[in-house]
Amino acid sequence: MHCIGIDIGGTKIAGALVDAGGSVIRQQRLPTPANDPDALIDAVIGLIEELAEGEEVLGVGVAAAGFIDAQQANIIYAPNLSWRNEPFKSKLEAKLSLPVVIENDANAAAWAEYRFGAGVGFRHMVMLTIGTGVGGAVITDSKMLRGGFGIAGELGHLRMVPNGLLCGCGQNGCLEAYASGTALLKAAKALASSSDPAGQRLRELQSGGQELSGQEVYSAIQEGDPGALGLLQEMGSWLGQAVASLTAVLDPEIVVIGGGVSVAGDLLLDPIRSAYLEHLPARGFRPELKIIAAEFVNNAGVVGAADLARVSLAPKVN
Amino acid sequence: MHCIGIDIGGTKIAGALVDAGGSVIRQQRLPTPANDPDALIDAVIGLIEELAEGEEVLGVGVAAAGFIDAQQANIIYAPNLSWRNEPFKSKLEAKLSLPVVIENDANAAAWAEYRFGAGVGFRHMVMLTIGTGVGGAVITDSKMLRGGFGIAGELGHLRMVPNGLLCGCGQNGCLEAYASGTALLKAAKALASSSDPAGQRLRELQSGGQELSGQEVYSAIQEGDPGALGLLQEMGSWLGQAVASLTAVLDPEIVVIGGGVSVAGDLLLDPIRSAYLEHLPARGFRPELKIIAAEFVNNAGVVGAADLARVSLAPKVN
Amino acid sequence: MHCIGIDIGGTKIAGALVDAGGSVIRQQRLPTPANDPDALIDAVIGLIEELAEGEEVLGVGVAAAGFIDAQQANIIYAPNLSWRNEPFKSKLEAKLSLPVVIENDANAAAWAEYRFGAGVGFRHMVMLTIGTGVGGAVITDSKMLRGGFGIAGELGHLRMVPNGLLCGCGQNGCLEAYASGTALLKAAKALASSSDPAGQRLRELQSGGQELSGQEVYSAIQEGDPGALGLLQEMGSWLGQAVASLTAVLDPEIVVIGGGVSVAGDLLLDPIRSAYLEHLPARGFRPELKIIAAEFVNNAGVVGAADLARVSLAPKVN
Amino acid sequence: MHCIGIDIGGTKIAGALVDAGGSVIRQQRLPTPANDPDALIDAVIGLIEELAEGEEVLGVGVAAAGFIDAQQANIIYAPNLSWRNEPFKSKLEAKLSLPVVIENDANAAAWAEYRFGAGVGFRHMVMLTIGTGVGGAVITDSKMLRGGFGIAGELGHLRMVPNGLLCGCGQNGCLEAYASGTALLKAAKALASSSDPAGQRLRELQSGGQELSGQEVYSAIQEGDPGALGLLQEMGSWLGQAVASLTAVLDPEIVVIGGGVSVAGDLLLDPIRSAYLEHLPARGFRPELKIIAAEFVNNAGVVGAADLARVSLAPKVN
């Protein structure tokens, strides 16, 4: 039997019917109804019904950015959707005849990698999803680490620097403030608007009168512009330092780097690996982990959400 | 049936016969044979045989400071005992007719708290043991977090300050460099040898010509000396900042503070609580955890080691 | 003979006729012509002519926020006025029959304190002007420290935290990012928009729907609100840490704290003093400096600019 | 007429008769009498008498590591010589018929560079002397910056990292803790005793059973060993960051790098230059200073001390 995975993003909702092997049978996308919770719920229900049509479906996993509670039923806090304490599971189940589990989006993506992608064959995995923010997920001993209140794995809020850069979470110095796509773009804008010769190419790429865009930064990286590459390396260094610190806590076998920024590949991964080694506590007296790129390109969220629903709805032996 | 717990410290080896409810039936101590691995193994075997005499024993748990591998069989690295890659389990089992599991000492102490002490009733617990160093242990979903290579939960090596104080692990800025008993004593010595008026009482307590001792610092704290209390509060602040950062990763329900320095009670715990709240990411948008003192005074290591052996040797259902 | 002092601020231009004892004979204010350099020059000339009318005037000192060159003739960079490499002295002298010297505004304010205010009787003084930003000035051996290119004393850009908060200068971790009025307001807004109980009073003071204003933060401080006072103390702690670091470089006898935020008096100065002592290198083995409040309320800029013109235009003996 | 310069080091006392052009006419060395203040004074007097014999001498400048008071008469604190509040000038003058001025050793070395070496032609110079510690000196507008209590220019105690590495001055995070010869050796020892492949060559150079020596580190650098060069570059980066921060305060035209470690030349200077540019506040909107190596090899201390005595004893015009 198949499961349905739904991934609610800031601009679009993706949905897929997924089989037990992680293959997408059928998929669909909708724009996210902005600022209208009821319309969003209706849109999700419509999408599920469409995907389920004519199929026997085991259940639905819904991934969203935010804090999900330990029962995987309620959204405690979703900054993008302006939701607090939203009983999302019960609202969906009230209109559907299918069981629903709610999941954090970074957890869903990590689960897809763990089961069908870069993490296959490992039991202890950490994933960092470098997009607008820095999402995190921890799989220990083959289980998703959820924590006491459901919100473990918020690795973007590991503190890197006391009194450091402001983070959207209200604190200072979080990893996300140094190593997200947003942080990269901010650093690139600062470089472009300075007189630093390293910002020369970024200044050229910037369309007249407008602020630098993420796309332009990405072009500069692909061209091999030393200025933009320097920023990417610095970002990688912060990520590697975070991996070293996380190793002391979690001791994973593997760290998977995903998200939009990870398309930079080894240009990002090599600095991560090198900073990890440089900052690893008791280096040389312990095994060293692997740092690799995510394998999924687009469907990690829906595939992971569907498979987590499958795991969560499976009969328990003990 | 009972289990035996052994706790190998730098100066003494403690052993106890422990029942299924965590009660100590019988116990014994020996001095640690210094720098002689074979003598140490013989001493541990002698202790086990003595404790086991006339009893039906399920198995033995041996706790030691250091990195234990994921099979709980080999000591990868034990700085105090100068051991690397020591096949401790097989050496002991070769001379005993009992199954043996090896365990990190901070894990053993945390397990005692989790099963029979401050952590009873919780499923997601973090423990920080503030002794000479800072030991750590993580229990998630009622299981000891071991990680891919057996050395998860080394929370003393979470990095607090980039380019910060030197740590014994070879890195800079680890929690242990700011919040261990050693760090407290070092700070107290510096204060006593300065001209700072806040060091007045420490200077008086210091025996003529000798360096300040940990006992003298403890006396100053108990007297309420503002200088010594200030150092303790600073130490508590670092621990609270670490708890806030760990919350992002692990999201525990409870943090237990143990070890020799924790006898300071709320003088230490209050600054931990207050720094935790001040540095908690997304404070106000999530539940807050409890920070409480350990309940065991002396036997956490042996009781936890014995009970972890029991858990580890129990028949598996799935 | 009198001198004229002009102080060009972001919103208004102040001018005064000042005697050799630092007393204001006559004064005048105008709004700053926004974004129109020529209009600004005309306004300054009009103001000078009005103040000079019927008086024998020795010369004119003009203070502006920005980098002034070593010849005190050209404005290298004035962020608020969008000026770069502006030959301000020659433009003014072209239309006036008076000698003109250009001066940094924080230098002018410090000179007024040094000659006629809090710094009287000292020869080595540092001043920190805490307004929107953090202005600085250094007087060593009774002379204004100008540096090789005219831009010494930019004390707001002493780095306090590697990889710290972003500063308007393009760097991270500058003092100004932690201890300016802007930084205080930013911290207060963050506290008010959190769920932290310490932000309760700030939330009440905030007018419905609008962002917190500086005036509301000031009210909270005056009421003794612990939340707002905590922010002020933290700001004071950063300033004291900066003073300790500056002492290693400059070894002044006295530090004068001025600017809008300094009206908080000892609520700000006490935390500065205490952090200075805590962070002073080789404390106890050296004299300790005085940290006191500025005495001028409004006219420091014009009085200092006028007197610096007098000093600068005086005949040189050697 | 000639002056005599004396430079009291931890292991030897150097003395020279120096002419008005900075040339050494005659020189002499003695071992420093350890731990015996009276013997040291006698040794210095003997050395002066010997150098002065048959010459008409204007005066004597004596350089020593430590805090010298503003009257250049008393040694407030000299850690190496265990002196506090030593009236050195009067003790020497009591037994000599020559005027004596006391000077900090880093100031003396800087003055030699300023007058006769790398700083010729500039008026605003900073010098960093990288030896066992980090000495500093500031020349502004052609004058030695002494500060209100005589101890300005202690640039090794500029704070680089809050809560950073311990410094001998009792504080944390001082430049000296990151960029002195001692810091370099400590970092090299740590690298050699780790399992890090980058420490391979240092491990080979280390004589069996003994700790790594400074000479061995220097050999590794000269061979081009990437591990040792990496440490030197990191040290250079800290120095460059310090120069950037000092620029905000002092705005010098030139920074001279001297002391034993500076023999590494551009291997050290290039990382200093590059970190300076990267961390310069308002980069691109201001002139950039020069960073160059010291020219004196051995005699900077005695030549500078002698010439500072000459300047100090010259008749004053104003």
UniProtKB/TrEMBL annotation, chains A, B, C, D:
One of its GO terms (biological process) is glycolytic process. The keyword Chloroplast does not apply. The keyword Nucleotide-binding applies. Keywords: ATP-binding, Kinase, Nucleotide-binding, Transferase. InterPro entries: ATPase_NBD (IPR043129), ROK (IPR000600), ROK_cs (IPR049874), ROK_glcA (IPR004654). One of its GO terms (cellular component) is cytoplasm. Signal peptide: none annotated. Its EC number is 2.7.1.2. CDD domains: ASKHA_NBD_ROK_SgGLK-like. Gene3D superfamilies: 3.30.420.40. One of its GO terms (molecular function) is ATP binding. Belongs to the ROK (NagC/XylR) family. This is Glucokinase.
